[in-house]
Amino acid sequence: MTTDTAPAAPIPAAELLRQVEHHVEHLAQGGSIELLAYLAFAARFHTYSVNNQVLILLSAPEARFVAGIKTWNQQGRRVRKGAKGIKILAPMTRRVEENGEEKRALVGFRTVTVFPDTATEGDPLPETSFMTAQEGGDLALFDHLVSHCPYPVKWEPLSRAHGMTDGGVITLDPDRCATPAQRIRVLFHEWAHAALHFQGAQLRAEDLPDRQTRELEADAAAYVLASLHGVEATAAVSDYLTTWGGNAEKLRASLGRIHQAVSSILGRFQNSSRMTPQAAD
């Protein structure tokens, strides 16, 4: 099936990258509410890079899905005539040999066009492919999360914390995590810590961000994950951006790690049998 869409002038990949950097600088100078709104939006597109999450946000902040025309057609939907596409970045790689092994190395980016769900019509859009609290309640959701968590979860009184992890086991305090919603938020927080900040011998202590940044990265990931699963989540700090101090480079690094945590955790629950429009053709 072919679809007439609005022609768009070519946009160099370098220009798209500049747009991303400008938006990250804007976020670094903003406040917590704006950053958390970005994180909640970006989580819908957790299979995309931070660069492409920002580009989708700038062009279609209301989007739930994006895809190329071919993928939309496979989903039983068509792009409306005259719809404007979103330019995102696709990596270009080449084969290289390193230490006797062949691998693919990134050599640059090219632009590709995708369309948001709001520019399409046809069959119903897919529902979320992971369980939410609305389906069975917070307690059922917590049990579901624990069953998919790659780290053992145990209960033990802790002197000062709601939860903790050593990178191998997640411990929750039964008194401080009295409600299922609290358990879910703390579980996601510690799970993010384990995924990001404990990687054994592969990650040296000097490679880790400072403790405050680690806590905010885990808290931001937990906020997004809890919200996506239908659990009310409130930021634990009044202003996330105090830690980044307007430093766009430092914030960019944290956004990458938060994206990494959210993506890896959501990947544990994604229903692989359900095709969803989340790719360029």
Automatic annotation (TrEMBL):
Ranges of residues in domain N-terminal: 17-115
A GO molecular-function annotation: single-stranded DNA binding
Pfam families xrefs: ArdcN
Name of this chain's protein: N-terminal domain-containing protein
Taxonomic lineage from the root: Bacteria, Thermotogati, Deinococcota, Deinococci, Deinococcales
